[in-house]
Amino acid sequence: MVLDTSQTGLAIHETAIPGLFEIDLEVHGDNRGWFKENYQQEKMEALGLPHFETVQNNISFNSETGIIRGLHAEPWEKFISVANGSVFGAWVDLRKGKTFGKVVTLKIDPSKAVFVSRGIANGYQTLEPNVTYTYLVNEHWQPGVKYLAVNVFDPILAINWPIAAKNAIISEKDNTNPLLKEITPLED
Fold this sequence. Notes:
- The chain is mainly beta.
- The protein has a domain at about 50-180: Jelly Rolls (Sandwich), CATH 2.60.120.10.
- It contains two helices and 14 strands, in the order ββββαββββββββββα.
- Residues about 1-5 have low confidence and may be disordered.
């Protein structure tokens, strides 16, 4: 993978879903590879990212192209990035309000990160083999945690996954998540 190292600076952009932020990261590269400051609380909060105290870092390694994970709205906030490779990310607002069911998609590579507020379902599809997806969270994972999930192939959401369903790799659990019309929106 050739990484564009021409980033000129850190930038934070709120998306069409309130509380979902796209972050442009500075990537510094040379003949040895690259380096990035993946998360820097003081700088990012100064640019408008909500205050976020991390308590856990999770990493998901995905060996094949076309793997889909999600769409899950766990009861914590996430700061998502990839350590290597690229993914097509998808987010759906599952909170009660005028943006319930709103979808945002974008490609994430090492020069891009995403901040996801509680109540926004998060999912992704790998665009190449051997992708390392990493996310910081502000609550500890515990067995039995209940959260909302929505079906990645829900026709109402109409997410245009780059790799079609017939060629995607998805868990049985994620494949049987409910449709949006079956979900009761999350209250604040």
